[in-house]
Structure of Cytidylate kinase:
Amino acid sequence: MIIAVDGPTASGKGTIAKALAKHYRLPHLDTGLLYRAVGRQVFLDGGDPDNAGDALTACTFPDGLLLDPELRTEDTGGLASRVSVHRSVREALFERQRSFALQPGGAVLDGRDVGTVIAPEAQVKLFVVASVEARALRRWKEMQERGNGRTLAEIENDLRLRDERDLNRAEAPLRAADDAVMLDTSELNRDEAIAAAIDLVERKL
Ligand code: C5P
């Protein structure tokens, strides 16, 4: 069974994907982490994330980089969204994601194009959305806990920029697959969102 969980930044897709993987005892891949590693590697190389050549070179990042806590920062998220517009980068990361999806026994993958490009044959495709206000508030609370003092308005602005880039790029823009089920988490807390996701998966099985 392949479960594809796509959606915009801070929609809750990562939390949901992790919980589904645990519930169904399946391996999980956060595909955004691969793009974050490429963004981080470009930065470490002193390259330009908007330059396709620099971004492609960074795709040969060492596996150990996936464990770098810096990958989780907003800055690296911004770099990831810039390197991810290049077709060569998406192609370079394709096989790794594809083979993860096809491993015997199945897998859960979350990202932007899992249901449309990486594993269009996935039995279950969830498209997780939430209002930009709800997503900004979640990010803000997370950051407060980590002692990061960015304002709600700054975070909301960043989210809008990233959404725009992910939605309007030519290569694999963020969109729901025709056979995806929508899950709006704006009004749901963590446990409610997970319960709703499991319920949707159960109906597909
Ligand atoms: O999901 P996350 O915020 O970690 O993703 C960081 C960036 O990587 C996204 O803004 C998006 O531009 C890019 N990405 C992508 N395709 C994916 C996963 C992430 O283009 N499958």
